[in-house]
UniProtKB/TrEMBL annotation:
Belongs to the peptidase M14 family. Residues 1-32 form the signal peptide. SMART domains: Zn_pept (SM00631). The active site is at E665. InterPro entries: GH29D-like_dom, Peptidase_M14, TAT_signal. Residues 380-708 form the Peptidase M14 domain. It comes from Microtetraspora malaysiensis. Keywords: Hydrolase, Metalloprotease, Protease, Signal, Zinc. This is M14 family metallopeptidase.
């Protein structure tokens, strides 16, 4: 699935190609994708014989005059025209005979865009949609409420969020919500609104509001009605804002006052370890990054066929920036093409014809440079993006190559030593470990501040705040404030919207200077679970793609370092990956295959409830700083609320090592009371906003530590009961209720339940527990196990005891 970021990058690259570059990176031509050679038929689609094989086809003509000529000939032209290097691409509806006749006339008729196969597929889809709609109309739909909550955010403005699933999944199903104005008020006194139908990868998910609705009074109930006839009334509960113990009297916070680059951030945590040696230490991660470094380059030419670029063999700071290249025109006629090298200065003496004009093509110059031993020891050369290079080059003065990197000398160009700060009174692996990591994506400048702020709070409040002391005494905390140091340096000093790291896997035809802002690997797509290499969606295999997953799983040292840390310190049981922006709180699974929306396995029902329960505590902590509420609709498993992210780190840690991990997206939308709209804050808001985001999400990270400490100290056994949910003459339905997040294992055949017995699941996405239906009176045996491993009644499922729960579920008269 192509993300909005992919689409924005595509637009940005298109704009970038039209912009002039610096003198050493000569202006590029406005270039289209390479076209097939004249007369070549692109075999992307084959025309069918239906309706005489009529198809929408490409035609490339030299100029507007030929467009007018086709129009005068009565050719059925589409309203489409695209400039190319070699002319104009237009589209026309043609039969095979018409296409043949136009080729005979000399027109370059190329591949099929669409034909009757597409029409048949569209009609089949339409028929199926109509059939489904008709079936849905024939009976009243069933509405399953998922969530209904009100909450406050920032300036105490109230909002309403409702999620409901209809059994009628077609687009003609319309759900409307009405709500009251508080206890004792009319059911529709609060207002009414139509819900949006939420689909993902073509699959209906549920109905919701696109953004929470602004309301004046807190409602107690909401009624949802469908145009199919379904109706349901649900209580509206408060989301977040649960009472929290205020920080201690001597609790201090707010330790960041500007955006920091990775060098500053790493120096900061290193100094903290030196200042608090009894509580903290630095863990040097074993894999150094590629480094904030690039080859030096120069480009010559402005027309694709005449353009070439030269790249240094050495990195810029290692001598590549000292290389120069000149394209010299000899004064004599009929001069041969030649290359001379003096030190690091390369001169290409261009060939001339009998009239003394330059006769060297771009391809010939490239071959001459590559073929000269002294020159090829210094540089490589290539034509523009694989172009044949048949155009004549122009003479150019000596041009010094440059890596074009602008960071100050304080930023090392060498491979970066990534460091994690380990905090804990007892750091020997005996305590429950928590891994907090930030800035996998370079442009997310707020996130490392969040990690730094959390580290400062833990260490500086240890002596004066009892709650902080408990966290540091009872946990083993690992904080990695910048996962992507190279890319983040590039984002700070060269291209602020850099997402990926800086390594360049592009071959020569994609490694021209104009692509320099598109190189790199998306580190949060480079992991080994649910990756694009396994067929999952949400990543790219294109080296310049916004979500390029790299050449292979775990190819990048930054991703390897995360894995190494969680393998080396196997006491790590919790993790938080902090990103920006949008205000999300998510957990695994994080990826699916688009076809059929095939998800990675969902976490079990007990763990899902643990995620939800923890979210209330963690997001209430976020809200305590300035009142920001993370929406219910932006809370949940990644694919339920955002999109598929193939090969992300949270999935890596959960599925391979059982680490309970969350994803923060800091930077929640800010509500504007004047416009009554939410406004996005972006990756790098003004520092005043960025500071507030770091502060509130640091509070959230501290709350994650509180959740982890609760897990570590949880020795309470869960308690469960069987609840009858429905009866008829020939069946009875039931489920289980438990007093804390836990998994239920049960049997229906009278046998002793074990950890291999069936496990209670969710009824559906964002729904409650499944309902189990039996057709005969049944003896049900079960037990519960919470997330910390405590078993109900201290039952030993692998032993011989019989102290499990027992109940008789009666059907009919019980016989």
């Amino acid at each position: 699935m192509r993300s909005p970021l992919d689409r924005r990058r595509a637009r940005r690259v298109a704009v970038a190609l039209a912009l002039p570059l610096a003198l050493t990176l000569s202006a590029l031509p406005a270039l289209a994708e390479p076209s097939p050679s004249p007369g070549e038929i692109v075999p992307d689609r084959q025309s069918t014989t239906a309706q005489n094989g009529v198809a929408l086809m490409r035609i490339v003509v030299p100029d507007q005059a030929d467009v007018d000529r086709l129009n005068a000939m009565g050719v059925d032209l589409a309203e489409y025209k695209k400039p190319l290097d070699n002319g104009i691409e237009i589209h026309a509806v043609l039969s095979p005979d018409e296409a043949r006749r136009l080729r005979d006339e000399g027109f370059d008729v190329q591949g099929v865009i669409s034909d009757q196969t597409d029409n048949a597929e569209n009609l089949a889809e339409r028929t199926e949609a109509l059939r489904s709609a008709a079936a849905a109309t024939a009976e009243t739909d069933t509405l399953t409420p998922l969530r209904a909550e009100w909450f406050t955010s920032l300036d105490e403005q109230r909002f309403l969020s409702v999620e409901v699933k209809s059994s009628a999944t077609d687009a003609q199903t319309v759900l409307t919500v009405t709500w009251d104005s508080g206890p004792g008020t009319a059911p529709d006194s609060g207002g009414s609104a139509t819900m949006s139908r939420f689909t993902d990868a073509g699959a209906y998910m549920y109905h919701r509001f696109s953004t929470p609705l602004s309301i004046t009074q807190a409602p107690t109930t909401a009624t949802i009605t469908s145009n199919r006839g379904g109706s349901v009334t649900v209580p509206v509960t408060k989301w977040l804002g649960q009472p929290r113990k205020p920080p201690g009297k001597h609790y201090v916070a707010d330790f960041v006052d500007h955006y920091m680059d990775p060098t500053e951030v790493t120096d900061r945590i290193t100094s903290l370890a030196r200042e608090f040696p009894k509580l903290a230490e630095i863990v040097d991660l074993p894999y150094k990054t590629n480094g904030y470094r690039r080859a030096a380059q120069a480009q010559f030419g402005t027309v694709a066929a005449s353009t070439l670029y030269v790249s240094s063999k050495a990195y810029g700071h290692e001598g590549g920036n000292d290389v120069s290249v000149a394209l010299a025109k000899p004064q004599a006629a009929s001069s041969p093409l030649g290359v001379s090298v003096t030190g690091k200065d390369i001169v290409v003496n261009l060939a001339t014809d009998a009239a003394g004009a330059v006769s060297s093509t771009a391809k010939q110059v490239v071959d001459a440079i590559i073929g000269d031993a002294a020159a090829s020891a210094l540089v490589s050369a290539a034509t523009y993006r694989g172009n044949a290079g048949t155009g004549l080059v122009a003479a150019a003065p000596a041009t010094r190559l440059t890596d074009n990197l602008k960071a100050p000398a304080s930023v090392s160009r060498e491979p970066f030593q990534m460091k994690a700060l380990r905090i804990g009174k007892q750091r020997d692996g005996a305590k429950t470990g928590v891994f907090l990591y930030c800035q996998e994506h370079a442009r997310e400048w707020v996130t490392p501040l969040t990690c730094v702020e959390t580290a400062e709070r833990l260490l500086r409040n240890y002596a004066g705040d009892s709650d902080t002391k408990k966290l540091v005494d009872d946990l083993d905390i690992f904080i990695l404030p910048t996962v992507n140091p190279d890319g983040a340096h590039y984002s700070f000093y060269d291209y602020n919207m850099q997402r990926k790291n800086m390594i360049n896997y592009c071959q020569a035809n994609s490694a021209d200077p104009a692509s320099r802002n598109s190189w790199g690997v998306d580190l949060n797509r480079n992991f080994s679970v649910g990756s694009i290499f396994d067929g999952y969606s949400g990543a790219s295999t294109t080296c310049t793609g916004e979500t390029f997953a790299g050449p292979a799983e775990l190819s990048e040292p930054e991703a390897k370092n995360e894995v190494w840390l969680t393998q080396k310190f196997q006491n790590i049981k919790f993790a938080m990956n902090t990103h920006s922006y949008g205000g999300y709180f998510m957990w695994p699974p994080g990826a699916y295959k688009t076809a059929g929306r095939e998800l990675l396995p969902r976490v079990d029902y007990g763990t899902e409830n643990f995620f939800w329960n923890a979210s209330s505590h963690i997001l209430s902590a976020v809200q305590t700083w300035r009142g920001t509420a993370i929406w219910p609709g932006r809370t949940g498993p990644v694919p339920d609320v955002l999109y598929s992210a193939a090969g992300n780190s949270a999935d890596e840690h959960w599925y391979n090592r059982g680490i309970i991990g969350w994803d923060f997206e800091v930077g929640a939308d800010v509500y504007n009371p004047a416009t009554k709209r939410f406004q996005a804050v972006g990756f790098q808001p003004a520092f005043g906003e960025g500071h507030e985001e770091a502060m509130e999400f640091s509070s959230g990270q501290v709350a994650i530590l509180e959740v982890a400490r609760g897990y570590a100290n949880d020795h309470k056994q869960p308690s469960s009961e069987l609840k009858i949910t429905g009866k008829s003459a020939d069946s009875t339905s039931f489920t289980f209720a438990v007093d804390e997040p836990a998994n239920i294992y049960y049997t229906l055949d009278g046998s002793r339940p074990t950890l291999s017995s069936p496990k209670l699941t969710a009824a559906g996405m964002r729904e409650g527990a499944q309902q189990i239906t039996v057709g005969t009176t049944t003896e049900v045996h079960w037990f519960a196990v919470d997330i910390a491993g405590n078993t109900e009644k201290n039952y030993k499922p692998d032993g011989n005891g019989k102290n499990y729960n027992k109940a008789r579920v009666v059907v009919g008269d019980g016989r």
